[in-house]
Amino acid sequence: MLVDSHCHLDFIEADLEQIINSAHAVDVDYILSVCTRLDNFANILAISKKYAHVFASVGIQPSEIIEKEASVDELVKLGQDPKVVAVGEAGLDYFYDYVPQVTQRERLRTQIIAARELGKPLIIHTRAARQDTIKILREEGAAEVGGVLHCFTE
Fold this sequence. Notes:
Layout: E1 2-7, H1 16-25, E2 28-33, H2 41-50, E3 54-58, H3 72-79, E4 84-93, H4 101-118, E5 122-127, H5 130-139, E6 147-150
């Protein structure tokens, strides 16, 4: 069994159906389309609902500049859909540092709490922020839900 555990189907400008069918034809049994910002979550969820073997996550990537931060309640509400199997792309990215570090840390904590409430694993993006990432994961009990590290540059 092959699983594409991290892609962004919502970023694809080519023939999405052809790409998904081609992946399935070469035994990619499941695909997880990872959310980077909530204003595009409906699109990601719609793609996942169109294909039985495609699933979604809900979250905000640390480098995304957004107008309003999501609350735990908002993430939990969106994450209750059965096609949503994870929370993220959460994390810290001090390499690009587009978003103030304090905001990134608060955003990460919010997403960990939501993942714990949902009982769904985390997708963690961390770059040049190893110590803070591990500290927050421990403090917020991320081990209760587990997950994967993505972009771990340490």
